[in-house]
Amino acid sequence: MNDYNFLNLSSFEFENFSRDILQEKLGVFFESFTSGQDGGIDLRATINKDENIIVQAKRYTSYSDLKSTLKSELKNVKILKPDRYIITTSVGLTPPNKQEILKIFHPYIKSTEDILGRTDLNNLIGLHPKVEERYYKLWLSSTNILNRLIHSTVYNQSKFELDEIKETLKIYVQNNSFKEALDILQDHHYIIISGIPGIGKTTLSRMLVYRLLAKEFDDFVYVSESINDAYSFYEDGKKQIFFFDDFLGRNFLETGLSMNEDSKLIKFIDRIKKSKNKIFILATREYILKQAKNTFEALNNPSLELVKCTLDLSKYTKIIKAEILYNHLFFANMPKAHLKNLVENKGYLKLIEHKSYNPRIIETFVQNQFWNDCEPKEFSKKILSFFNNPTSVWLHAFENTISKGSQIALLILSTIGTPVLLEDLRIAINSFIIANNKKYPLTIDSIEFNKIIKELESTFISTRMDSFNKIAIEFQNPSIQDFLINYIKDKNDLISDLIKSFSFVSQFFRIFTFDKSISEFNLRIGLNNELLEEYVNKIISDFSLFKSSYILRLNFENSRFSWHKNENFIYSFLNQILIELDNSANQKLYDFVIEEFQRNIEPKLTSYDERKSYIKLLNRIDKENITIGSEGLINSFAKQVNSIDSLKDFSKLQSLFSFEYQEFVTNPKFESKIEEVIESEINGTEINKYENLIDELKEIEKEFGFHLDDKISTLTEKHAELMDEIDRNMEKKTTIIHSKLKNMRSRWREKNSLFQTYSMD
Predict the structure, then answer these.
(1) What are the structural domains, with CATH classification, of the chain?
(2) What tens digit of pLDDT does each residue of 511-527 get?
(3) pTM greater than 0.70 (yes/no)
(4) CA distance 235 to 244
(5) What are the phi and psi torsion angles at 194 (to 5°)?
């Protein structure tokens, strides 16, 4: 039997649950009422003119609190004089507890059967599973499911802490999107959850993950940076859930997807669709998805619309909006006097009907406990002011609750972007103070810096330490970055101060752009001519001094990971400058890019991104500006080919230097190089990942005209053998499980028979 404690339900939700379970038990309709003074009535039913039933639903943790409240209800019950009085409570009750309550409410409670404690309600849930299915929060937060989450295999940064799970479950409000999403997953095995910022995309995704882990899935993979993470942890034969939050990337609007990321994504989706034991959940902001469709042909696929679940505020009924508001405030332990003001003035109606209603505004308001800054009688006006001006939620906290040093840290963090290493943020802050020491006379030593991080943590930022004690910083949620961009916009003096201090390449592109046009996709700050001149001069004068701040998460076994930073960024930096120059021509900067590329024309392909950027630069720059001989360039690039992926990049040189390329690839030495790379890939790939490798080899075979049939055939056979072995093991496990279930049912029938005999005696 289930053992729910019902405390993840708010008082309002517990009341509704009591109504539904009693309607099933008694077969009668119960009236329920809006929140407020109930006069001793939570639920009411009239059987006929001579019989009326009143129910009180009490959500408490201890019997002493319950008993105290029940005694205060007695006067109302005597006035109402119900023919039958029923109590439901989340408190577990002993036989003496029930007898005591029965005595208090005599003669209105007819028997202890009308006093339903925690155990009774769990028993009724077992008898009426339809009610349980409607209340996701119950079974998602059950002990059995949480234990299953602990013991399921969880990869990457997907080890959600149980406290975080419980907190999310408390404020979650059931709505049609959950059922809609489950239906899409059942039909297609993958789903794209989209919507405006703050609508609850990540929350819905997590609820789906918990539900699937609770029911039948074993492994959970959180895809953090690239679809490559999903490929790395994909295992045939295992029931796996992949969750790619913000799958187009927080950097998409600035730098787009990595090369081939769109085709890899679609390819992975195709594998998921064909699989019977895999689920893929993707979440993104709707406006970014629209931009991506305009940019990448692979994503502009009508079939993707079939699997899209768009969270839309217009679909949220007033009741759902009210429950979201209520749950946030209820579980925030807000002073009763403030809540009373919101209810008495019916201020909540103005909030749930407000054009700017957004769950994130409520979440941020609660997170910052803004009610501490106002008297109870002013509470309704206070929270309404944040709805009238959503940016004021963060503006108030930014301007009134943190120090000047913390304000500067956040402004700088917005230019660098997150995640960023703690040590790099400190470098950027010091650079800002040095560049603007007269205007901002601050001294931020190690003690002051630690104070700043401590002040910002849990409100504006969060920190995460890797397995080697390196700490990275992230914004608590994307709305903070959005607020900071709007805060900086139009403050030209502040923008100038920031540009002067830039020490990392990311600071040039994170929130600033040459594009001055206004559109829903342009969420960065367009620079005027004067600021653009400063920007260009800064790049040219300090180019050799800039550092990289971009970090990736490298994952190891047993949930260990490290923050990795690639220090090589020249080609990526130059390529991004050329992308910006598409929006606004600047001959001075263009000439500088050409000059720097010529200085670094001999390939130094130290990373995946640098290799991709080098190819893009070759395509963008006039061949007359390439000072190295094409044969030397091809030969130098080929020497650095060490994987199938880099081999495919090498093939892109064909369109640039067709004659020299063709002559080079037909050389027997290059053929040996390809064979060496392929053997290395095969030896380094586990059998359960052969399926993807086979596809890669087919591409190489087509691209270079190589005959790889024997290798592909061998890999296919080995993979088929593995799948057969997995199927046999699954059949064995299924047989064992069926046998255990059969024995359990047999023992249960014996116990039930003994129980009935005992009862008759």
Answers:
(1) 11-134 (3.40.1350.10), 139-315 (3.40.50.300), 318-390 (no CATH), 399-565 (no CATH)
(2) 998 887 765 555 788 89
(3) no
(4) 17
(5) -125, 170
